Amino acid sequence: MTRRLAPVAALAALLAGAATVYAQAAHAQARLPDGGTARAGGSGVVEAHYVAPTARYAHGVLGDAIEAGGLAVRDAAGRRHVLMLSGDSVFEDITPRLADLDGDGGAEVIAVRSYLARGSALAVYGMRGDAFVHIAETAPIGRPGRWLNPAAIADLTGDGRLEVAIVRTPHIGGRLEVWRLRAGGLSRLAALDGFSNHVIGSRTLGLAAVGDVDGDGVADLVLPDARRTALVAVTLAGGRARIIGRAAMPAPVVGTVSISGERVSASLAGGRRGTVSFAAFRD
């Protein structure tokens, strides 16, 4: 009797293993709810989105308890790659960003990676040969429940290379930091205290915009101050961070900040809209 049952037990174990593998593969294919897809041209990553929803990080800074456990991309050759994080971290983000940070003609992926025990880090991934790999990462903030929000990816110094501007801990005395990808990893170029680019619990991340506010030919960054009661224009021309000026808002900034021509517009509390000209920052 035991001998007859052995093949049945082996088959059951095989089927259970196959079911587990199938479930894991299906989970890796599942997209992050409300997550978007980033697209770019060039020879690197051309499409990216977050996958593998997970509730293993109980922070909820973006309004729910679901974060991403993986990142799916498509390269310029049409190949799909999926990078899964280990259980100690998640992507605490909504849509990845694509930009050519190293100037090789192909986009890298810029993401917010949050460690369950150490908080958020700015992370960069990209193609190296035929493989999609982790390239560089800042040190995590150092405590759980501490988050950062990218503000812009642009040539903010005027030297022709892209930098990544973030606001570290935007809800508690946020610090604006500007980072650049170099051969040895990510290096910080500048930092200024007193900024915010997110309302806790909100799914809106774009509380910053880029434009040449001071007319020197170099892109400047416009984002709210720490209380979100004013917009602040910051220049990093030449690699040094300096405030150009401030423009008070009639209500707190709670939504998207955008630039059209020489005017900055922001979504304010109470359904209001605040609009100022570049000249307001120079007065």
UniProtKB/TrEMBL annotation:
Transmembrane segments: none annotated. Keywords: Signal. InterPro entries: FG-GAP (IPR013517), Integrin_alpha_N (IPR028994). It comes from the Bacteria. It holds the Pfam family FG-GAP_3. Residues 1-25 form the signal peptide. SUPFAM superfamilies: Integrin alpha N-terminal domain. The keyword Signal applies. This is VCBS repeat-containing protein. It comes from Microbaculum marinisediminis.
